[in-house]
Amino acid sequence: MIGIGIDTVEVERFRRALQQRPGIADRLFTPAEQAYGRRQRDPAERLAARFAAKEAVMKALGVGLGAFAFRDVEVVKAPSGAPSLSLTGRAAELAARRGVTSWHVSLTHTGLVAEAVAVAL
After folding, report:
1. C-alpha span between 34 and 46 (Å, rounded)
2. pLDDT, tens digit (0-9, with 9 covering 90-100), for 29-59
3. When you count CB atoms within 10 A of the terminal residue's CB, does the N or C end of the chain come out lower?
4. Using alpha carbons only, what angle is made at residue 97 by residues 93 and 103, rounded to the nearest 5 degrees?
5. For 65-117, what is each residue's pLDDT tens digit?
6. Which of 54, 77, 104, 109 is catalytic?
7. CATH of the domain at 60
8. Does residue 54 carry a catalytic annotation?
9. pLDDT (0 to 100) of residue 79
10. What's the confidence (pLDDT) of residue 55?
11. Separation CA 78–CA 51 (nearest Å)
């Protein structure tokens, strides 16, 4: 294991941020992540979990905000429903430099909170 990261997001606070700053979704999420969110009854819960995953990846890599664009980390859903991560750009460069060859990610959410754990291997 190279690193582990965890993050928690308050869903209602995240929902308000999405509503008050319409362009923020484009800055934080890939088009596929945004489309996935729109297909859900409550997009804020799912998007908050994906945002938590992006921050958990930063922590697993030992970097802070600004080290890479949020869209450089994408939560991808397998046909089974299991989440995985796809890193591009600066995030992929940082992971490669640290010797990361694979990731494990776990997401969970309720109406109140969304959480994610990312493990860099």
Report:
1. 10
2. 999 999 999 998 889 999 999 999 999 999 9
3. N
4. 75
5. 899 999 999 999 988 989 999 999 999 999 999 999 999 999 999 999 999 99
6. 109
7. 3.90.470.20
8. no
9. 87
10. 98
11. 18
53 vs 36: CA distance, rounded Å: 15
Give CA angle at 24 (18, 29), nearest 5°: 100
* 9 within 8 A of 115, measured Cβ to Cβ: yes
To the query of whether residue 77 is one of the catalytic residues in this protein, the response is: no
Which residues lie closer than 8 Å to 99 by C-beta, 6 or more apart? 2
Residues of the domain holding 69: 3-120
Per-residue model confidence (pLDDT) at position 22: 80
Q: Please report the DSSP string for 25-63 in residue order.
A: HHHHS-HHHHHHHHTSS-HHHHHHHHHHHHHHHHHHHT-
Structure tokens at 105: 């990610």
Q: Catalytic one among 54, 59, 77, 104? A: 59
In angstroms, rounded to a whole number, what is the distance separating the alpha carbons of residues 46 and 111?
A: 10
Bridge partner list, 115: 8, 108
Residue 17 pLDDT > 90: yes
